[in-house]
């Protein structure tokens, strides 16, 4: 869901993992299909597919844009085969809370280079909250992992690489409590 530029789908397909991209944006579908990628990207959403179609549903920085999180997870549960997986990479609340505490702000989060983009990001859910949300919709939490930072140029790129080095040292000790991890990768397994 939300294949962005199609890079993840292309990577999976090049490693012999059958992958199909689905996006609700006509512009993104046109972009992906016009870049000579070896992946099908179709216009639509999960409702476009029969129940129990997928082994895995992957969303990269999409979940935070949704409005009805429970409804989406119920739909994903229906579209996954038995023992299927839902994987989501998303910014989480702990980093946002940390930034606000430094800025002494209780107002709207500033746009932080796409990590938080008000008003497009509707919710930043904590790691614990995301697990509870998934579990009440028929999933077991298999893993919560630190996601790598995006690669940028200039000072911002240097800063993000520096933070990632710190995160790699701190993550094994503090796990989800470590406040400098911007995004987490959640792996959930469908239960019957």
Describe the structure in brief:
Pfam families: Methyltransf_11. With 192 residues, the protein is α/β, with parallel strands linked by helices.
Tell me what you see in this structure.
This protein is an alpha/beta fold. It has helices spanning 7-14, 26-33, 69-79, 93-103, 127-135, 154-174; strands at 21-23, 41-43, 54-60, 80-91, 139-146, 183-190. The strands form two sheets. It has a four-stranded mixed sheet with strand order 3-4-6-5. The chain starts with 6 loop residues before the first helix and ends with a strand. The relative contact order is 0.14. The model has no long low-confidence stretch (mean pLDDT 84).
Tell me the layout of helices and strands:
Blueprint: H1 7-14, E1 21-23, H2 26-33, E2 41-43, E3 54-60, H3 69-79, E4 80-91, H4 93-103, H5 127-135, E5 139-146, H6 154-174, E6 183-190
Parallel strand pairs: 1-2, 3-4
Antiparallel strand pairs: 4-6, 5-6
Class computed from helices, strands and strand pairing? alpha/beta
Percent helix range: 25-40%
Give the tally of β-strands.
Answer: 6
Order of strands in the sheet with most strands:
3-4-6-5
Largest sheet: 4 strands, mixed
CATH class: Alpha Beta
The total number of structural domains is 1
Query: What is the CATH H-level superfamily?
Result: Vaccinia Virus protein VP39
What's the CATH architecture? 3-Layer(aba) Sandwich
| Computed CA radius of gyration, to the nearest angstrom | 17 Å
Low-confidence stretches: none
The general outline is globular
How far the N terminus sits from the C terminus, by CA atoms, comes to 23 Å
**Secondary-structure element sequence?**
HEHEEHEHHEHE
Strand content: 15-25%
Number of helices: 6
CATH topology: Rossmann fold
Average pLDDT:
84
